[in-house]
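Input chain follows. Return structure tokens only.
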Amino acid sequence: MTQLPPVSLNPLTLPLRGERLIEASAGTGKTFTIGLLYLRLLLGLGGENAYSRPLSVEEILVVTFTEAATAELRGRIRENIHQLRLACIRGKSSNPMHQLLLEQMPDLAQAAAQLLAAERQMDEAAIFTIHGFCQRMLNLNAFESGMLFEQELIEDEQALLKQSAADFWRRQCYPLSLDVARVIAAEWSGPDSLLATLRPWLQGESPGLKRPPAADETLASRHARNLARIEAIKQQWQALSADVEGIITASGVDKRSYSSKHLPNWVARVTQWASSDTLDYQLPKELERFGQQVLEEKTKKGEAPRHSLFEAIDQFLAEPLSLRDVIIAQALTDVRATVQREKRLRALLGFDDLLSKLDEALQQPGGVLLAETIRARYPVALIDEFQDTDPQQYRIFRTLYINQPEQALFLIGDPKQAIYAFRGADIFTYLRARNEVSAHYTLDTNWRSSPEMVGSVNRLFSQLDSPFLFSAIPFQPVKPAAPNQSLKLIFDEQQQPALRFWLQPGEGVGNSDYQQFMAQQCAADISRWLVAGQQGRARLGKGEALQPVRASDITVLVRSRNEAGLIRDALNALSIPSVYLSSRDSVYTTPEARELLWLLQAIQAPEQERLLRSALATSIFAIDAATLDALTQNEREWDALVEQFAVWQQLWHQRGVLPMLRDVMIRRQLAENMLASENGERRLTDLMHLGELLQEASVQLESPHALVRFLAQQIARPNSQASSQQLRLESDRHLVQIITIHKSKGLQYPLVWLPFAAGFREAASALYHDRDTFTALLDVQGDAQSLALAEEERLAEDLRLLYVALTRSVYHCSVGIAPLIKGTRKKEGESDLHKSALGYLVQQGEAADAQQLSQRLNALTGEGIALVEEALLPGEMWQDAQQGDEVLSSRDITRALADVWRVTSYSGLQQHHSSPLLDAMPNFDIDAAGEEEKGEEAALTPHHFPRGAAPGTFLHGLFESIDFTEPPDSVWLEDQLQHNGYPLSWLPVLEQWIDRVLHTPLNAEGLRLSAIKSSERLIEMEFYLPINNLLTAADLDALLRRHDSLSQQAAPLDFRQVRGMLKGFIDLVFRWQGKYYLLDYKSNWLGDSHAAYTPEAMAQAMIGHRYDLQYQLYTLALHRYLQHRLPDYDYQRHFGGVFYLFLRGMDGSSPDNGIFATRPAEAFVEEIDALFGETGEML
């Protein structure tokens, strides 16, 4: 194809047909240009260069590569349409480009109407990510593409990959013989280790193998061949080694390298190896010293030693002894195939599958029809960020739009900014597309940076003819925009250079020293800017409107989280606040996640002291050890805490986990305490983020227990790939920003620091592209040529990354550089800096020492470039000017907020409020709470058993757990005492006490609890009674007083009127001789002798605690329950009565003591039933 030279793009006259490649250098207005082309397509503008007809927003396909870019493009295009529509109405525009468009419009009113329709349709505009476009096409053309109707799109395929790798390991490695398995185990410890090796090659299309194993080659056959090769070289050595020492000694080889001291030892070690059994692939390191090539390199003068054995050793070492390529070749194919099979079985679809499915559909015989359908829907396509394409993506658009004269394809990007190879982007696909598209255009005016900044970058990248290594990626200097001529950065009344190199002194420095030095140098320089800005000495802006430099004007660009950590530490040391904008860590890895788990466990079971202590000891509550110890010693305060946690448990059950956490934060002032601590904003953000994630998860989970289990699982196995888990930005205040270069692409910052620009990491694997066919190749063996090509591609990407970094700044960029020497060699002489992108440009691709580096940098200075060759500058501690908080106020609510519908209980009707502790823990003996013991125990009797809520709950638990028909098991009873912290001396007392309660007659007919089988009783029967009528305290009180003598003696009821539900738990409901009874255990301490439990004394206790109201409500509940369950229910015939057992009074002294019995009248039950309203279903 004939290549036309690139021409400068005029967006108003660009022909809107055929294929066009637009290369937009950094800051040259790519998005603005896309917006103008979009407006021309909407209105059909451009004269003979216009598209054949005006298009709707649904017909113009715009594809970019991230969700954020899609949202930005949609917003910019919408704004462009809106501004041009207003200009059409007014007849003029302040935007020169829009004014030129107005001049092309024959009818402004019609254009305004078209733009209004487009603006209203923008939500339907065809602006997609590449994955979104493919998904839409597959769904809209399901039959043509062979897409299933029901498929789940999965964000993360790691679980499938792990399973597939484990399957491969099981199939291929388990059956291996021990000797082969030993070789494999030396390479990979297991399937996870193998997957880590394979993972870079599993995304996108699979690379071809440079030297694939033969199709019939197996691990066993390769292993046998390797052993045979080792045996062969061993035999040759044994046959010929006798002459080796003499030949080398007599030759001209450097005798310092092959001295008479070491040579015999080397020969002996190789001979010892040659005579040993071959069990693995371990070779003596001395063997390579006897290779012909090494011997020739070590011969400076005279004849090099020559022998057939030396040449045989060279040939032997040239081909690595490995099973690695066989395993990797099989695994790449098998793991991919297994993953695809699993996806088909489960109807799953990954993001990469969206592309591959559409690509396959377009390449099928029926793909022509599918392509025509897509072209008819989208006659014009604009592909943004095209430099980040890959073979599959380009094949899709090539099939759709290349050689289609009636359609238009615009490929817009910048090959100098192709930095996403780790994500599957392929610059070589871009180069191929560049060759296939004849019409090339460039944007050559930088609208972002100051003229000095533009000129400095132009000078740096013009040091070499091909600064990006490949001639197909040229560097063409760009022009600064005229409006930016007045951009200024002033420090102490001096205009500052645009590009400043900070050279670390020394003959050579290691990587760690370089990073530590530059992190501190960077922090010191930033403190200098901030202090000067605060004093009004450092200002920036346009023209005369200059503003002081603030922290938010400064951005530090790094390559990794570790580099970001070094910078944050250095800034923290000078009290400079910063924020890291590129964190991809999971929020479940934070300390707040673990502490929230402990808090939820305590709220789930507030009665367990150990869990409660753990929650209170977390940094969330910020209680020190002494305060916590004092809390545990104060029984009243501890009980109040238990009560509070029970309130939160109830709130969790009723409204959800996030409202509960909000209440915890408000009551304990967690937000205020956290913000006052170090990294408080970060911690508070993480806590709120976790709350949202848990609230979202709780919708899918059946109970709070499941939610706690879910949180524990996420903490054990966090997934940083899941976007919902990734740490959120904690603040958008005026802070120094730290961001990775990759994430900074497309953004701009006033002042930029690149502290670690000289760093580099050499290519780890021999994955490279064929320079003629542009296909990806993987050399598993990693020979020198393949590694050199892979290293060239690594350096080329680093150069593009450096270009992106240097072009982010508007006013100024500082760059850290040093004579960097990698590894352990002595830090002097020629450095390794030329292997880094920055060193490659500064040293023009040549190795140089520290002095030569300094000379090169000095040669660059001037015309906006400066050099600092100083030792570490002292940093100033930063103190931000305190700004007073704005006083805020809210409107007061004057009306009463009262909703009569609620869920209430016996205690809610008895008092002004219900007990949330009782609702959360129905077994809790709230009536016994507050009965504190005075002094030592006087005797081992029921009257002297420990008093209070906990002993009462313990006694309730015993009677709920035992079988009434048999005496309790002594071992079990002993365990219960120990578990609850009571001395074993109470064991015989408890045994007698329980026996007495079970065998005491409860009425004249001889009813005993020991006669009640387990099948004849319901324990802790929960009920919900509807209160359909509006229930008032006066109405209920009047009814009770008419029918019950105890109620007549009690204080009046006083509760807020209610409609809703009555909730409660009845200790025991049992059946005896066809009648149903309800029974409640009371552990109240009324006195220290049997005289305190006479019928008269119990009646007074019943009145005092309003137990009369309790049994009346329980009677109504049982009455309604029996109505629903018994078809021939009759109150007189079926309802037996009510028993209240005051357990401490049942000491055997009198048969009447401790037993309160009654049976409400039928008329009363019918009246209270009517008062509550019509019967509803009970839960």
